[in-house]
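Complex record, four chains
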Amino acid sequence: MTMPPTFKAPSDAIDVGPLAQRIGYMLRRAHKAVLDHGNVAFGRINLRPPQYGILLFLARSPGRNQAAVGAALGIQRSNFVGLIKGLDKRKLVRRSRGPKDKRPRVLHLTNRGEALLREAKKIDAKLDRRFDKKLGRGGREKLLELLTKLAEPDKGSRH
Amino acid sequence: MTMPPTFKAPSDAIDVGPLAQRIGYMLRRAHKAVLDHGNVAFGRINLRPPQYGILLFLARSPGRNQAAVGAALGIQRSNFVGLIKGLDKRKLVRRSRGPKDKRPRVLHLTNRGEALLREAKKIDAKLDRRFDKKLGRGGREKLLELLTKLAEPDKGSRH
DNA sequence: TATTGTTATACTCTATAACTATA
DNA sequence: TATAGTTATAGAGTATAACAATA
């Protein structure tokens, strides 16, 4: 197994050696690549990817409060405030207070929000086509399956 | 396809609906989960994951300068300074200046650096075993293959 | 002029503590 | 007292500009 040192000098691919086998490193690189694309694409309709996530979630599960939506998306409620305020100011979401419990702000998409979401979904589909081209047949489904397993909380973590 | 609203209330799994099918979202969740584990594990030997990456890279490719190592790891040279200084202060790496070109600082692992890297590799292997358990047989290899494809720069991006 | 390392700075994402108003 | 939203703040990670020394 004595291998000669590899110097993949020429093209734009860099030989990072054993790093290419590290899950954390490759997740970082892949996430950044995908995020960069998302920022550019959604930026055209003035949305950041997390805000698109909020719209998408509210279309399916309207009527939740901020804490619930934030928890589902993995965003702490304090950090959620800025995101949702941005959407509120643009009249993409409605934050109503119920007459019974006046603490929670119940979230709904407005008509404008639904319209923008339709645009955003087109952008998203375009992004997916680009990624599908890279990942190959069945690649996206397999990737999502594996990422879901990684993201699941540890069972019986005796660490 | 009229599906009833899904309320996966009980366990710790949250129903995020269509978000679970978004590559960017799942990459973010998976990356964070893996990073959290890495921070805890490598924190025990006072390393942050990017610093482990530097040691790993230098063991395989010694004698490069900061800009080269940073570029290979996807870290800008300005942001690389703090990371490498931390390793230098702990005598894990040597930053020498050649007599010919006095600008670049040529990087090598010290004996201490090699010793710590051996410890770090054990921690890394332990992390991998944990991830392998989640990912199942062949999961890690497949995941790395897909992430590599995603991280590759776009060819002929006509955007 | 270009390159290497460096500093300073800013912006995003994330994390924690503390406040308010409600319950 | 507990909860929901909010504010402030701090820490990573990342990005850009500018500078000094060197080539």
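Note: The beta strands of chain B are 93-97, 105-109.
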